[in-house]
Structures are given as C-alpha cells and as structure tokens.
Amino acid sequence: MSFSPGGILFYCGGGNSGPLSTVDTATGLLTNVATLTGSPGALGDSISAGAYNSAGIFYGVVLGFSSSVPPNLAFLVTINTTTGAVTTVGATVDKLDAIAFAGTPGQGAPALSKSAILALMVLLGSVGMSLVRRRSRSSAS
After folding, report:
1. Is the dihedral of CA 77, 93, 69, 65 positive or negative?
2. What's this model's pTM, rounded to 2 decimal places?
3. pLDDT tens for residues 22-33?
4. Beta strand pairing status for 30-35 and 46-52?
5. Of 61, 82, 123, 138, which has the highest C-beta tally within 10 A?
C-alpha cells in the first residue's frame, strides 16, 4: 500500500499478477484499476512493499515465497498505476519487505542563497565563540 502524491491509496494485495486497486480511505472499499502484468518472479509472488519517489513514480518490491526457486528472492520494480505494467529495476536484497524515499513528492531539497549561508555561518560562529568565552570565564573562577 502507498499513497500517491495526489492522495490516492494504492493496494497490490493480489500478488504480482493480481489486481492493482485503490482504497477508499473512508469506507475501505477496493476499486480495481488494472491487472499487474510483466512482473518478475513466480506467478503469485507477493508485492511486499510500495512507495512513491519524489518524482511521483510508484515503486514496489516483488518478494518470492519460500517455495520459489531461489526462495525469498526480491526485485525492485516500478508499477504504472494506469495500466498495471510492472517494470523490473533489478534484483535487491532477499526478504526485502519495506521501502521508503526521502523528501516530499514533487518538491526538491530546499536551498539557501550564498548570502544566507554566510549569515548562518557568522551566526553559528558568534554563538560558538560566546560559549567558549563563557566556559573559559567559568573555568577561571
């Protein structure tokens, strides 16, 4: 399960070849959007995790069951929430069951201007010097 940047909750509870659904957060009702296709792994392997990155791309983890060969093999994938197409990014660590991305979807990292960085450095330097002076005065007493 994962919320899209637009606030839609997506669910892949039927495994890597099952339905991609949206969840009505008020009622819990599922609405099938598409059927997942093109997934790596054995038919019926689980989608053990899902998360959106800052560009709004839905990533998932396909995790093989213990009966899969080899067991517990995991793949990082992207999932097209319109068509259900699953694209393999690559194999990942065995038994992976959670993923997350830093940052807010659609927002870049905040940046400071050169003058703001300089002002911050002066402020922090002043605070540091006053702490050193205060400590040296208390040691001298």
Report:
1. negative
2. 0.69
3. 999 889 999 999
4. unpaired
5. 61
